[in-house]
Amino acid sequence: MYKRIKSSINVLLLLSFFIPILSLAQQSIHTERQYLSGTSKDDTKTWDFFCSEGRNSGKWTKIEVPSCWEQQGFGAYNYGHDPMEDRAKEYGLYRHKFKVSKDWKGREIKIVLEGVMTDAEVKINGKRAGEIHQGSFYEFKYSISKLIHYGKENLLEIKVDKVSANESVNYAERKADFWVFGGIYRPVYLEAFPKENIERVAINAEMTGDISTDIFLHSNAAQYVTLELQDLKGNKLQDLPISKIEKSDAKWKLNTKAQNIQTWNPEQPNLYQLTFLLKDKKGKTLHQYNQRIGFRTVELRESDGVYVNGQRIKFKGVNRHSFHPESGRTTSKALSIEHVNMMKDMNMNAVRMSHYPPDVHFLEVCDSLGLFVIDELCTWHSPKLDTELSHKLVKELVVRDVNHPSILLWANGNETGWNTDLDDDYAIWDIQKREVIHPWNIFKKTNTLHYFRYHAFARDAYSQDKIYFPTEFLHGLYDGGHGAGLDDYWQQMWHMPLSAGGFLWDFADEAILRTDRDGELDTDGNHAADGIVGPYGEKEGSYYTIKEVWSPIYIEDRFIRDDFNGKFRIENRYHFTNLKECKLEAKWLLFDGPNGKNKSHILDQQQLEFPDLAPEQKGFFQVELPPNWQSAHALHLTAFDPYGKEIFTWSYPIQQANELEIEQTQTLNTKSKISWKKHGEEYHFKVGKMEYQFSAKNGILQKVKKEGHVIPLENGPILLGQNDAIDTIYIDKKDEKLKLITQFVATDKTPKWAAHVELSSDKISWTIHPNALLELEVEIKGKRIVQDYKGISFTFPETEVSGMKWLGDGPYRVWRNRLKGTRFQTWQNDYNNTITGVSGFEYPEFKGFYSNLYWAKIEGKNENGFTVYCHTPFTYLHMLTPENPPQDPKKKVSPVFPEGDISFLMNIPGIGSKFQQPETMGPQGHTENYFGNDDDPIRIHLTFDFNTQSPKI
């Protein structure tokens, strides 16, 4: 009995000895990761740190890793354009202690550094892990299995030189047009591989399901490999039979084919997991390696276009820096998701990495959410990057990123920084043999020249047979570029067969939060204020213009009139999606008036189906007209993509301004007797609680009082662009109303081409109503082509304005070449003094031009506001004059505003970009305006309400 018990105990002891080993053996087939730093800007670890120069230097202290050390209060700041003599040259010393499990002994251990600025020397327990790495934006790693103390404490030491010992690296990375930082700014971690392992794989998964792959091995025992196709949760979908295999000591090449797969594209970013099981001769799994893939085929067909899965595509793209205002180049996956979602929301389908490879998680998000990517080696103009070093950097770039289905092209540097000795390197490491481009160059099959003017679409040069896609165009600066001019450019790009679209510059303002200037947001003047969004993702007006212009559902512009039949012509501008997969919602809306609660009331609502239209096909859809549709104020059409996300909302006024607002202003029925007198050179009118004072010399409104309290709207209307003499001023009484009329002298400078035409004279007519409404009718003599403003203006002190509520297009201001992206409804904006891309970063900006005004309630600070109704269709409101940005020496993005504070205009200017005046960016940017017949005056008709109670709708 005792022997049996003892025997059982021995068996249990034996089993207890083997079970951990079996468990360990089971675990050892997987690659394990141990982070030594944090994983992102939002998850850091504290290391010991010494900074050699600048702030907090000369002593050992603490720092968060990953980070840019400037943002942690060390060293000094530099922008890439700073003179060499002004550049900071500090170095940093990092120390961190860590332990490695005894279970890792016998495995292959590597330390991985995802990004260090700029030169990095890595030591483990006092011994150098490998050669010094140079280049800020590349992942590098060392095998450190023999340097580790297993189960004991280890010391990691890293010396980081902010300025590289390789001068070509400094030219490529630190003299560029972006902020330059120092430090370990991306994560650091250990990887533990099984002793017999797959180091990495390179995969070409094509639209047909065909897969070719290179497997890079560290193994003497491996005999064969099996492949499984899984979903992203690890559920096996199918075993993949190997049709061909070629073996060498370090690399196996094999081919297989998956069945019934769904392809990857930005509109349907279908992803899979490809699992490799490395086996020995007994069938034991030595290593399991998982790689996420997407099936797609990329082709650049010469003198034809860029094709993905057999479909010719056009890039609707933007350039994007890896950047956050508080952490510099240290980012996070959450930030990558936020940025990609914003790009997708703008209906973009592509992003160019500017001007360096991004964080791994950004590419992962592009894969999963769907964006085409151009991945780029970091160079900047001349001189060229050192060839010997560049061979290493190209390898690091491609080896890390080779398996991302989102990447379509490699960019061998930027803007003359191309080292042509590297052009063939990409194919060495890229199993997919993706093509290489030279941004801002005509190279092989492509023309990617930057910042061409609109007329360059003529394409009469020797490059006219090249695939045409500028990797930078419409360089944003402050509020210029991006949306401004895009409609003109895109109309040409869309209809040019050899155009493959283009990329805007750039996504976000690179405004760094200066830790040495009490948290100031610094864009280095006009160098980094280039974004569609602000540093924290604040949406500027161009955001919504891009969203409309790049909508994959193109709805032909139209106006709704009494004979409207509900029919809209459309075009499917998707590349891979049939419009029948999208949804459409139609709303017939009524809006509250100036004293309402700023709500929209749905008169009728319809859920509609789009027609069966394949990509690039045209057709139409029909909106059902409800019985009372003509009483609605607007029709809104909202399109949703197959995932239920809004593509865009188009809006169409039902009634014109002269139809809707006359009815509104007539609802006041309070009547009082009007009294008036002339006092010197002034006319004084009094009606009810209101007093109006006009100049008897020119008919200009001089003062408004309500119960003795001044409402400071005055000095108007100034007739803009007119200087004719006054003929007469007189008062006319009609019914219970009084009119003050100013008649100007007709011009005596009739041009020869209009000698037969009797030109009209200007006229200002004020009507004082018994209900105290003040009506203004202005006639400005006709002129066919004008370059100055046509309209009228008043003064109203900016210091007295607190906000504005209006019915019209909004909520963003517009320019002549950036009218799209707004929506017609009631809006309310509080006053702000934002200078786009410079200060405030509060959007929408309050000051500027607003289109399609019906009425506006100007909110004063001391109950001194008023409401104005506009009865003239297509009138622009000029609401105060924004400050010009401080660094715009050639005034490309500083349009001249009309005199006065509040204006009612028939034309407004365009705005330029960093490198162009608006007139070189397309027809919409031209300064000439055509107003029709020479003898037909421009008429502006307004009604002002200064009463306590405004008309009710």
Question: What would you note in describing this structure?
Answer:
- It is a single chain.
- The chain has 953 residues and is mainly beta.
- The chain folds into four domains: 32-193, Jelly Rolls, CATH 2.60.120.260; 298-549, Alpha-Beta Barrel (TIM Barrel); 553-640, Immunoglobulin-like, CATH 2.60.40; 674-945, Beta-galactosidase, Chain A, domain 5.
- The chain contains nine helices and 68 strands.
- The protein is elongated.
Mean pLDDT figure: 93
Helical amount among residues, as a percent range?
A: 10-25%
Order of strands in the sheet with the most strands? 54-55-56-57-68-64-63-60-61
Q: Under CATH, the topology of the largest domain is which? A: Beta-galactosidase, Chain A, domain 5
Report how far apart the termini are: 101 Å
The radius of gyration over CA amounts to 34 Å
Level-1 CATH class name of the largest domain: Mainly Beta
Strand content: 35-45%
Number of H/I helices: 9
Count the beta strands.
Answer: 68
CATH architecture of the largest domain: Distorted Sandwich
Shape: elongated
Give the arrangement of secondary structure elements:
Blueprint: H1 2-27, E1 32-35, E2 45-51, E3 60-65, E4 78-79, E5 91-99, E6 108-113, E7 116-117, E8 119-124, E9 127-128, E10 133-134, E11 140-143, E12 153-161, H2 167-174, E13 179-180, E14 183-184, E15 188-193, E16 197-205, E17 210-218, E18 224-230, E19 236-240, E20 242-247, E21 251-257, E22 264-265, E23 268-269, E24 272-279, E25 285-293, E26 298-301, E27 305-308, E28 311-313, E29 315-320, H3 333-345, E30 350-353, H4 360-370, E31 372-376, H5 387-401, E32 407-411, H6 425-429, E33 436-437, E34 442-443, E35 446-447, E36 467-468, E37 473-475, H7 486-495, E38 501-505, E39 512-514, E40 520-522, H8 541-549, E41 553-555, E42 567-572, E43 583-591, E44 600-609, E45 618-622, E46 634-640, E47 646-653, H9 657-665, E48 674-679, E49 682-687, E50 690-695, E51 701-706, E52 709-711, E53 714-720, E54 726-734, E55 737-744, E56 763-768, E57 774-780, E58 785-786, E59 791-795, E60 801-810, E61 823-830, E62 848-850, E63 855-860, E64 866-870, E65 876-879, E66 902-905, E67 929-930, E68 938-945
Parallel strand pairs: 29-30, 29-38, 30-31, 31-32, 32-33, 35-36, 37-38
Antiparallel strand pairs: 1-15, 2-3, 2-5, 4-13, 5-12, 6-11, 6-15, 7-14, 8-9, 8-10, 8-12, 16-17, 17-21, 18-19, 18-24, 20-21, 22-23, 24-25, 26-27, 27-28, 34-35, 39-40, 41-42, 42-45, 43-44, 43-46, 46-47, 48-49, 49-50, 50-51, 51-52, 53-59, 54-55, 55-56, 56-57, 57-68, 58-67, 59-66, 60-61, 60-63, ...
Helix pairs in contact: 3-4
